[in-house]
Amino acid sequence: MNKIFRMGWVFICHDSEIPNAGDFVRRNVGREPVFAIRSRDGEISVIVNRCAHRGNIICQEDKGNRKALVCQYHGWAYDTKGALVDVPYPGGFTGDFSCHGLERLPLVDSYQGFVFASFNENAPPLLDHLGRATELIDRAVEMSPVGRIRLSGGWVQHRFNCNWKMLPENDTDGYHVNFVHPSFAQAIRSNYDEAVLDDEEGLKSLAKDWGNGHTELFFSPSYTRPLEWFGCAEGRHPSYTKALLAAYGEEKGGRILKDGPPHAVIFPNLFLGEMNIVRFEPVAPGICLHVHTPMYLEGVEDDVNKRILRQSEGALGPTAFLLADDCVIAERAQRALQGKGRWLDLSRGAEREVVAGDGVISSHLTDETPNRGFWRHYRNVMHPGAPTSGAIAVA
C-alpha cells in the first residue's frame, strides 16, 4: 500500500466526472479515502477525506457538488482547495488555526483527461510513469471523433475475494479465454471468438509488455473489417464512421475504425477495458473491488453510446458473461495460494518474444508476456535495484 499506492502514481478519475466548480467524486488511494474536487479556478485537487479536527469523513456521498466542505461532526468548514475557512465557537481554541487545512495530495496531474495523483512529492513526472503507454490512452480517446471521452454512466462495483493483483494479472492474460469464457464465445459473436475458436497457430492477436507494469492484449490484428470490435456490421453506424474519417483523415480514421479500442492495464489500478474504464481497489490482502463504467464518446450520436452501454452490461454488468467467470477463477486462485507458498510458472512464451525498436515486447496472444511485465515492475517498485531481467519468481 505504501510503495505502490502512496509513493507512486494512481488513477483517480476522469475530468469529465467533475466538469463544474464544486463537483467532487469520492475515491480511494490504496485504502486511504480521498476525493477529487474542482475549484472555482478550474484546478482539480485530490484531498484526503478526513477532517483536520477529529478525523471524521468530510464527503459522505460518492459524488456531488459543494460550495464549501463542512464536517458534519463539529462543523469545521473548508474551501474547495481544502483551506480552513471557519471554526464554530472559536473561543474554546487558542493559537493560529490557519494551518489546519485538509491534507492535499502534493502531486496531481492528468493525461488526456485521466487524472492521476500521488502522496509522494518526489515521485517522477506522470509522463515518466506512463512512458510508452501514453499511446494506449491516446488510442482510447481517439475512438471519439473529437478526442474526448465521458464517464457519466455511473460506476458498478463488484467485490472479489482475492488479492488486487489478480485483477491486472488476469485482464491481460490471453491464455485463459478458451477455458474460462467458452460459453460467452459460443453464445455471442465477439472479438474474443478468435481466442476461443481458433487453434494456436491461427491466432493473430498479440500479448504486449509496454514497460513500467503497463500491459496489453492487442486484438487488432484479428479484425478483418471496420467496426468488427463493436460487434456490428460495417455500415451499422454511418454517422460515426463519417465523423471519424472527417476528424482523422481516411488513413488514420480507417485504422481506428478497424483496430478498435485498447485492452490494456495502466499500472497499478487502471484498466482500459476496450469501451469500459475499470478501477482496481485493494481492500484487504484477500479482498478487492473491481469498479467499472462505460466509456462514452463525445461527438457521436446517441445510438453509439447506447450500444456501448449494452456491451458494458453484457461483458461486465451484474448478469454479464465475462466478469463473473473471472471473479470465480480469481477467488479459486486466492484460496489455493493461502496455504504454504509454492512457486508459480510464468515462463510461457519467454523464448518467442519480440522486442520492437521502441522497447515494447510482443508475443503470442496466449504467452505470459504481460504477466512477466507486471511482476517485473512490481519487483522493481518493491525492491529497487533488483535485477531487471531473468526469471520472475513469485512465491
UniProtKB/TrEMBL annotation:
> What superkingdom does the record give?
Bacteria
Q: Which PROSITE patterns would you find in this protein's record?
A: RIESKE, RING_HYDROXYL_ALPHA
Q: Which Gene3D superfamilies match?
A: Naphthalene 1,2-dioxygenase Alpha Subunit, Chain A, domain 1, Rieske [2Fe-2S] iron-sulphur domain
Looking up Pfam families in the UniProt record yields: Rieske, Ring_hydroxyl_A
Q: Which residues form the Rieske domain?
A: 9-90
**Alphabetical list of PANTHER family matching this protein:** 3-PHENYLPROPIONATE_CINNAMIC ACID DIOXYGENASE SUBUNIT ALPHA, CHOLINE MONOOXYGENASE, CHLOROPLASTIC
Indicate the family of this protein. Answer: Belongs to the bacterial ring-hydroxylating dioxygenase alpha subunit family.
Q: What is this protein called?
A: Rieske 2Fe-2S domain-containing protein
